[in-house]
Structures are given as C-alpha cells and as structure tokens.
Amino acid sequence: MLAVADLILFWHRRDLRLEDSTGLAAGRALTPRIVGLFCLDPILLRGPGVAAVRVQYLLGCLADLQQAYHRIGSHLILVEGDPRQMIPQVAATLRPQAVYWHQDVEPYARQRDAAVAQALADLGIPSQTFWDQLLHPPDAVTTQAGRPFTVYTPFWKAWNRLPKGDPLPTPQNCVGLTPEEMNRVKAVVRRDLPTLRDLGYESAVELGVEPGTSAALHLLETFCADPIRRYGEDRNFPAIPGTSQLSAALKFGVVGIRQVWAASQEAAGLYPGDLEQAAIQTWQQELAWREFYQHGLYHFPHLVDQAHRRIFDQFPWDNQAAHFEAWCTGQTGYPMVDAAMRQLNETGWMHNRCRMIVASFLTKDLLIDWRWGEHYFMERLVDGDLSANNGGWQWSASVGMDPKPLRIFNPATQAARFDPEGAYIRHWLPELRGVDTPELLSGQMLPIERAGRGYPPPIVDHKRQQALFKQRYQRLTQGAALT
Ligand SMILES: Cc1cc2nc3c(=O)[nH]c(=O)nc-3n(C[C@H](O)[C@H](O)[C@H](O)COP(=O)(O)OP(=O)(O)OC[C@H]3O[C@@H](n4cnc5c(N)ncnc54)[C@H](O)[C@@H]3O)c2cc1C
C-alpha cells in the first residue's frame, strides 16, 4: 500500500480523459496524488501520414484534459520530445512512487513502451500498465485452440459472450504537484500547450467534431437517445446523419469504452422492439470490429505494412500516378467516388459506406496498391487510426483477414441503393447539382454535359477494370489457400 503522500504519474496517450479510466481509477484508489503527463511526440505530430485536422483535434482534447485536471485539484504536465527520453526525465525529476499507463496494440507504441519501462526500471522507478482501450484485451478472445481469430463472425460471437466491465469512477479531490515540484519540472522539461501553427502547420483547420470529453459524451448521449434505434438502416445512407460520429473520440480515448458500451446497453433496455434491438446490436458489432482490428494488429504486427495474406504483397498493381491523383482530388468522373473524396478533403471525415466504396474503387477499378489509399486516409482523417484504417483497407482490397467473399463495389449501384435521391452527391459535387437523378446516380452523362459542367469523363471503365482485377486476383490465388 502506498503512503498518502506518494505520487503516481499517469502517462496519457490515447486515453485523453479522466472518466472511466482503468489506470487512473486504480491510482486514485491508492493515493490522491495523481498527476497527468502527456508527451508531444514529434513522430506522432509531424511524421509522414499525420493529418493536420487530427492534430488539431488532439490539441483541443489536451486543452480539455488540462482543465479537467485543474478541476480535480491536480495538473497535466506537457513535455515535448522522444517519450523514451522525456518520460524517464520527468520521472527522474519528480521521483514518483510509480508511473502508470495503458497498453496499446500498435507495434511502434509497444516498442516505445518497453523502452520507457526499461529506462524507468534503470532509475529504480516502477511502472505499471493496464488494458483500457478495449472491452476485451487481445489475449482474452481466442479460438478454442487458443489462437487469435482471423475471421470476424466467430470473433464477434466469442467477444459478445464475454461479460463487459462497468464504467469506472472518475478520480476526485486529487492533490497536484507542490510549487517547488512544479518549478523543478518547469526548469527541466515542461512546455505549454502549442498551437497548430507552433507545430509547423500552416493554419488552423475547421473541425467537424468538437474535441474533449463533454462533447464526446454529448454525442454518445444524443446518439443513444434515439438515432441508435434506426442505426441498422440509417448507417448505410451517407446523406443521413445516422451514425454516432464517435470515431475521433474513440481513437483518442476521449470517452471510455465501458461508458460507450453501457450507454448502448441502456438503450437496449429502453427499446424492446425487434428492429430496435437488431439496430443496437449492429452498432455493438461495429464496436467489435474496432476490437477485431486492434487484436489483429496486436497479434500480427506485420499488418503495418504488409498484407495479412502475404501472397498479396506480390499483386501486380498498376499504380498509375495520374489515376491516384484523380482519386485523391475527387476527379475520377464517378460521382459517388468523387463526392466521398471531397467530403474527406473538406471535412477530415468520410461516411463508412463511402470509405468502402472509394477503397474498392482505388484497388479494384484503378488497380492501385491499397497502401497508397491507406496512407492518403491517414493524411486526412480526423479519426485516422492505424488498426481501423489498415483493417478497413485490407478488407476492402480483399488482402486481409476475413477475405471472403471477393467484394467489388459498383459505384453506380451503390449510389442507387444508398443515395437514391442523389442528395449526398449533389452536396459534395456542386457542379452536378442540376443533373437529373438517374444520370447523376448512374454517371451516364453525355460527354458534352460533363464538359459543360467542368466535370471529367470516367477515368476507367468499371466493367473492364473489375474483370481485370478478378483475373489477376485469381491468377495469384490459384494454388494459394484462402485463409
Ligand atoms: C477503408 C476504410 C478505412 C477506415 N479508416 C478508419 C480509421 O482510420 N479510423 C476509424 O476509427 N475507423 C475507420 N474506418 C471504419 C469506419 O468507417 C469508421 O469508424 C466510421 O465511419 C466512423 O464513423 P462513426 O463514428 O459515426 O461510426 P459508427 O457507425 O457510429 O460506429 C461506432 C464506432 O465503431 C467503430 N467502427 C465502426 N465501424 C468500424 C470498422 N469498420 N472498423 C473499425 N471500427 C469501426 C468506430 O470506433 C466508430 O466510431 C475505416 C473503414 C474503411 C472501410
């Protein structure tokens, strides 16, 4: 048992909240002296594949967390640099009883954490870690043979059977650093919260989703109060705000996963209709997809830059730069694809149905390596998350876990089913607002009409390209077992 005066440093990473936090609740049960620490790691702030909008969201969440610490009587210390040096440096300055943090699934984070734990041990300072960002940690959901699942449906069944933890208490009445301790930290490492410009970005970007825990809890509450009842149907229609918009909050742990689960269970208790129950379960299945991909990355770290089905690292992609450019800028001549890419470019977020459509189009129509698309998404998404993005791309390209059946999305069919009035397309492609709905959805506009509206002709022929993809796919997989 720690003495009351003992200090616990809590190293925040993708858990930017006080509520429903495993490590903070455990720490507060031992001592009121809990002080938060966040390291602005240049690799995560300015490295390749970093989206300005995501950094902006992160900075907003840090400002919110600073205030939250202030309210409970403590502090969030900010430092900047390589965490492998900075965390031990702060610890050496303050000599806490222990440094706590939550475990992560990403290979970079795991290596970094092992190095930090070793450096702390060398200083004689213990560290303690907890699983927090998942309802069930990676080793808790396995096949009967004790192996990780690589197919979603059996994973979901096993995952869903396990009891889920309740939300954890928020630490209250804490005691922060003494002025003398604060001065010591300031002298060595402390840094004020930077702006986006301080970090080298040109200017502020507009966020479609408000950062911070109160905003995330408001989203959760609003969604579970009503839209969740129709999620089964509404989630497919990009013109309808039928999904929770919680992805950025879940990526940064601004809201606790147990709290999210509890809210969905509460809704399930309130809405007994069959359709409502099915809709709520569909949403819970999305939470399970999130965990499926995180478990996958934990067990198969090669996914970071290789296909799960390694044979696909030899797929003969065309990789035409001009086609990629047209896809990135929403100029492929396929209205559904272009509308989606413009939503991404303008807002930093894209509807899930559209993510599947554009990812299928990039890989199966343009025959471009899924990693190009994955990287572009990471450069743009406010919710860009290695495991979910990589999982979504590998799934869409049919190179990852759960590869069957071979899925190829026809943009015109998808538009007709999921944007039947053309509202989504018209919103993002103003130049096509006056086009009649059938032509808008099918994309069958006369060349003269396209030209008059400044909209490009289709850069490829869908039918031809999908046949080409299938041919190459079958050639590669002949003789190779589909796992
Ligand atoms: C190619 C591709 C790339 C993607 N990249 C990302 C990404 O970088 N970050 C990200 O969070 N999601 C990603 N997704 C999954 C999904 O599109 C988003 O999570 C979802 O659109 C976010 O909107 P929402 O919060 O309203 O979701 P909701 O429909 O309300 O779902 C609730 C939560 O469940 C999780 N979730 C939902 N669908 C998935 C899924 N298919 N895989 C993993 N988790 C899921 C998210 O945390 C989401 O916030 C990707 C999907 C595809 C096909």
In short:
This protein has 483 residues and is mainly alpha-helical.
Written account of the structure:
With 483 residues, the chain is mainly alpha-helical. The protein has 3 domains: 1-133, HUPs (Rossmann fold); 213-299, Serine Threonine Protein Phosphatase 5, Tetratricopeptide repeat, CATH 1.25.40.80; 310-477, DNA Cyclobutane Dipyrimidine Photolyase, subunit A, domain 3, CATH 1.10.579. Helices cover 51% and strands 5% of the residues. It has helices at residues 22-30, 42-46, 52-71, 83-94, 107-123, 152-161, 179-188, 213-225, 231-234, 247-251, 257-270, 274-299, 321-328, 335-347, 352-365, 370-380, 386-396, 411-418, 423-428, 437-442, 447-453, 462-477, and strands spanning 8-12, 34-40, 76-80, 98-102, 127-130. Strands 3-2-1-4-5 form a 5-stranded parallel beta sheet, sandwiched between helices. The longest helix has 26 residues, at 274-299. The termini are far apart. The model has no long low-confidence stretch (mean pLDDT 95). The structure holds flavin-adenine dinucleotide (FAD). The site of flavin-adenine dinucleotide has 28 residues, from helix 10, helix 12, helix 15 and helix 17.
Topology (SSEs and partners):
Layout: E1 8-12, H1 22-30, E2 34-40, H2 42-46, H3 52-71, E3 76-80, H4 83-94, E4 98-102, H5 107-123, E5 127-130, H6 152-161, H7 179-188, H8 213-225, H9 231-234, H10 247-251, H11 257-270, H12 274-299, H13 321-328, H14 335-347, H15 352-365, H16 370-380, H17 386-396, H18 411-418, H19 423-428, H20 437-442, H21 447-453, H22 462-477
Parallel strand pairs: 1-2, 1-4, 2-3, 4-5
Helix pairs in contact: 4-5, 4-7, 6-12, 8-11, 11-12, 12-17, 14-15, 16-17
This protein binds flavin-adenine dinucleotide.
The site of flavin-adenine dinucleotide (FAD) has 28 residues, from α10, α12, α15 and α17.
